[in-house]
Amino acid sequence: AVGVQRLMSTKTDGINTITIFGAGLMGAGIAQVSAQAGLKVILTDVTDKALENGLNIINKSVARVGKKQQPDDIEGFTKKVLANITTTTDAEQAVSSTDLVCEAIIESIKVKRDLFAYLDKKAGANTIFASNTSSLGISEIAENCTEERKALFGGLHFFNPVPAMKLVEVVRTDKTSEATYQALFDVTKRMGKVPVACKDTPGFIVNRLLVPYLLEAARMIDRGDATKEDIDIAMKLGAGYPMGPFELLDYIGLDTTQFIADGWVDKAKAGVLPEALVEPTSSIVDLVNKGELGRKSGKGFYDYT
Ligand code: CAA
Ligand code: NAD
């Protein structure tokens, strides 16, 4: 609670209400850290079931945070955080009165672009728009918005698990205004995060380095170079990574990883990324085709059931 007050007292960004699209792994996490920072949160998704999934993720995680931040009254902490979150499946209502939209839906350029074009017409003239995309261009996502909105448009790239990972990549396009960029930077600090400045380049900083590594790990098992277990052990004990690449792929979600890789094939065709970085890997494709998407579906490279 002390942390919340301290963060609120530095408020300079004009953001009181945040609307989050997508109540999956990322949207739930962003909703949680926003609510912990004292923002009013509107969490939205396409079905009630998806919202329920998001609230389940939040409930489990808030209890973990409460255990550390307010061990004498975990229930009180949880209640206070959850009181800041409302949910709806009505996209128009969700943006009718909000300061910031943060989108964390499926990693598809078409779906994201269409959503923002729709929201542009429904949200207030001063509402800032941000995408949590892993790999898509912010300018491309904003393409069908008005020029006025493009000045209010940036990237807010959080990391999974959001409540534990300190970093946020704040992305500006050549149309993002200085005031928008500053507000995005400042609001991440209020959430207790450390922002870094990124240009609108594929994968920004982290994923430009991390995703090629993960895909090459998957290609290693395609080729039979080593087992997934040995690769995971090797990278943890030999390179000091907290998770091996297959544990991390399962953690991120194999569908999300496949969306990133597919999107990058087009970028390679356009000459923006090297072809070798995005060569498809059958071990990921095969699991996605079976619906084994990683931890979130109970099974991926490993079994979590
Ligand atoms: N909610 C709240 N707190 C959580 C949490 C959650 N879901 N998961 C972990 N934590 C907290 C724990 O409470 C603990 O906090 P303290 O240190 O203050 O006690 C801390 O995080 C460490 O957790 P654990 O001790 O339970 O476990 P761990 O030491 O094994 O760490 C981990 C877990 C933080 C997930 C660690 O394994 C890790 O850093 N893994 C790598 C994660 C990573 O690389 N993420 C980036 C993925 S890529 C991405 O996100 C970008 C993209 O676009 C795809
Ligand atoms: P997820 O599959 O866990 O959740 C996605 C959610 O979006 C689902 O609940 C789905 O119902 C919802 N959704 C789909 N279309 C929607 C729409 N039109 N309106 C509202 N909700 C809609 O995915 P995730 O892992 O949370 O990823 C979300 C975004 O965040 C993606 O762009 C992804 O690339 C990015 N990202 C993911 C990670 C990660 O490690 N998983 C990390 C950083 C960024």
Describe the main β-sheet briefly. 8 strands, mixed
Q: Which CATH class of the largest domain applies here?
A: Alpha Beta
As a whole number of angstroms, the C-alpha radius of gyration is 19 Å
Domains, number: 2
Largest sheet: spatial strand order: 3-2-1-4-5-6-7-8
**SS-based class:** alpha/beta
Question: What's the helix count?
Answer: 14
Number of DSSP strand runs: 8
Describe the structure.
The protein has two domains: 2-199, NAD(P)-binding Rossmann-like Domain (Rossmann fold), CATH 3.40.50; 208-297, Orthogonal Bundle (N-(1-d-carboxylethyl)-l-norvaline Dehydrogenase, domain 2), CATH 1.10.1040.10. It contains 14 helices and eight strands. The chain has helices at residues 2-9, 25-36, 48-69, 74-83, 91-94, 109-122, 138-141, 147-151, 178-190, 206-223, 228-239, 245-252, 254-269, 282-289, and strands at residues 17-21, 40-44, 85-88, 100-103, 128-131, 153-158, 167-172, 194-199. The protein is globular, with a radius of gyration of 19 Å. The protein is of the alpha/beta class and 305 residues long. Strands 3-2-1-4-5-6-7-8 form an eight-stranded mixed β-sheet. Helices cover 50% and strands 13% of the residues. The chain starts with a helix and ends in a 16-residue tail after the last helix. The protein binds acetoacetyl-coenzyme A and nicotinamide-adenine-dinucleotide. Residues 21-27, 44-46, 50, 104-107, 111, 115, 132-134, 158-160, 252-253, 256, 296 line the site of nicotinamide-adenine-dinucleotide.
